[in-house]
Amino acid sequence: MNKQTLKYIALALLTFMSSPILAQTTVQSPYSKFGLGNLKGPALPQLRAMGGISTGISRTSYIDNINTQNPAAYASVHLTTLDIGMYGTFSSIQSGGLTEKNFNSSLNHLVMAFPVSRKSALSAGLLPYSELGYNFMTSLNIGTNANNTKTAHFLYNGEGGLSKAYLGYGIQFGDYFRVGANAEYLFGNLIQSNSTEYQNDPGAINSRNQTKNSIYGINLKFGTQYDI
Asked: In this structure, how many other beta carbons lie within 10 angstroms of the beta carbon of residue 112?
């Protein structure tokens, strides 16, 4: 392994070390309350623009690009390639006569690839996997008559998300056949809280329950491609 390859591997490790900063995302959606949050599509923008197709794609143009969906495609990278992207979302949420509009943006991905030989390449990067972000309230009148009725506010809040760091290698055999593999590390925190607050009732006891899930896991992905 030559010195240049070692430098690129060190750069990839540095990317992983900085991932807690780069992986921060923001979203405002009550639908992210369920499961792992709103799942982010793993395809990079150039593949999303093609409807998400990725398995058989090695290059989208004459310029080298990184297809993280199929690690076999790394073998088509002949020049050192760095892909950094940001994203922004506009959302409008309506409930009854109320409307809330939001704009969120953040760094989306940081991926790189560099050739090891004429027919093989390494790739590493950081991608979002899911995002969690919501803050809403519902109210309920509790009591049996006008004298003992009080208003309870139920507040729901969530934040966090999951990110995916990966290191992959692809190699081409002959003129048409390529294989590759990714080692992927999934990590992140999902924090959700439920609160109950009573309006104009100094004798009531408010409550708050918070749950934090720290998720970590390793995944292996394999891929092949054959050009006809």
From this structure: 20
Helical (H) or strand (E) element with 85: strand 81-95
Widest CA span of the chain, in angstroms? 85
* Secondary structure of 122-157 in HEC code, one letter for each residue: EEEEEEEEEEEEEEEEEEEEECCCCCCCEEEEEEEE
Which helix (H) or strand (E) segment is 9 a member of?
helix 3-17
Global pTM exceeds 0.90: no
The pLDDT tens digits of the residues spanning 53-62 come to 878 887 777 7
Alpha carbon distance 125, 113 (integer Å): 9
Residue 90 confidence (pLDDT): 78
Percentage helix, strand, coil for the chain under 3-state DSSP, each rounded to 5 = 15, 55, 30
The b-or-e profile of 154-178 (16+ CB within 10 A means b, else e) is eeebbbbbbbbbbbbbbbbeeeeeb
Residue 42: HSE in the Cβ half-sphere, 13 Å Cα cutoff: 18
Q: Residue 210 pLDDT > 80, yes or no? A: yes
